[in-house]
Design goal:
alpha/beta; 2-enoyl-CoA Hydratase, Chain A, domain 1; 6-stranded mixed sheet; 3-stranded mixed sheet; globular
């Protein structure tokens, strides 16, 4: 089985099981991630974690598949890329936070998927590589947009033009990784992070992740309007009632 979903009650874990090919993308992984995004609509789900059963998070596209894809027309190749882009859009639209738990590293479209998540936990030995150029290819799945939001332009250019890996610690120093952990502990650290999220206000978290995501591209006036609308809705909700009461009563909120 190259991909599966583990339901832990209030959290979903999507396992990339393609260990023999360093977690290279498969149709089954696409389906599992998309299904997890749909399952996250259930109010009981508080977070989704993407991880791998092997020693590498995801090596991106399978080059043997890409060889076969060369036989297709350019229009057909665009359709195949659109399938990956729909996956990224589904992740961006998820109503709860999505966390990547990375062992080994993420390369190519695997890096794109990692950066499409809201937060990243990585083991200290993990490497992040925009490896496309080494195969004569260009980034997809939103990688250039994600790098532009996270990194200085010279480093984004170096990663994409040279295909050189960046170590997890360096990525963390630049703000692209949230937590660094010991080898083999990425999932444990991601679960602890999701524990904190699960104790928070689900609706407010969902609104916050959408506001933050769109802020990178929105005009300030439009972002102010979006924040106004989200605040007006949140202020009238049950979560705000509990959160304000807990603050005034000097107790932990029960969301």
């Amino acid at each position: 089985m190259s991909a599966r979903i583990e339901d832990r009650g209030d959290r979903l874990i999507v396992w990339n099981g393609n260990a023999e090919k360093r977690g290279a993308l498969t149709p089954e992984l696409y389906e599992a991630i998309e299904e997890a995004m749909r399952m996250a609509e259930d109010p009981r789900i508080r977070a989704v974690i993407l991880t791998s059963e092997g020693r590498f998070f995801c090596a991106g596209g399978d080059l043997n598949v890409l060889i076969e894809r060369r036989k297709l027309s350019e229009a057909e190749r665009r359709e195949r890329v659109d399938g990956l882009h729909e996956l990224v859009r589904a992740m961006r639209a998820c109503p709860v936070p999505v966390i990547a738990a990375i062992e080994g590293g993420a390369a190519g479209a695997g890096l794109s998927l990692a950066l499409a998540c809201d937060m990243i936990v990585a083991c200290e030995e993990a490497q992040f590589t925009a490896a496309y150029v080494k195969a004569g290819l260009v980034p997809d799945a939103g990688l250039t947009a994600s790098l532009a939001r996270l990194l200085p332009r010279p480093l984004s250019m170096e990663m994409c033009l040279l295909g050189r890996p960046v170590m997890a610690m360096r990525f963390a120093e630049l703000g692209a990784v949230n937590r660094i952990c010991a080898k083999g502990k990425a999932l444990d650290e991601a679960l602890m992070l999701s524990d904190t999220l699960a104790a928070g206000p689900r609706a407010a978290q969902g609104a916050i992740r959408q506001l933050v995501a769109q802020a990178y591209e929105a005009e300030e006036a439009d972002q102010l309007d979006a924040e106004r609308n989200a605040m007006a809705q949140a202020a009238g909700g049950d979560e705000a009632a509990e959160g304000i009461a807990a603050f005034l009563e000097k107790r932990k909120p029960r969301f």
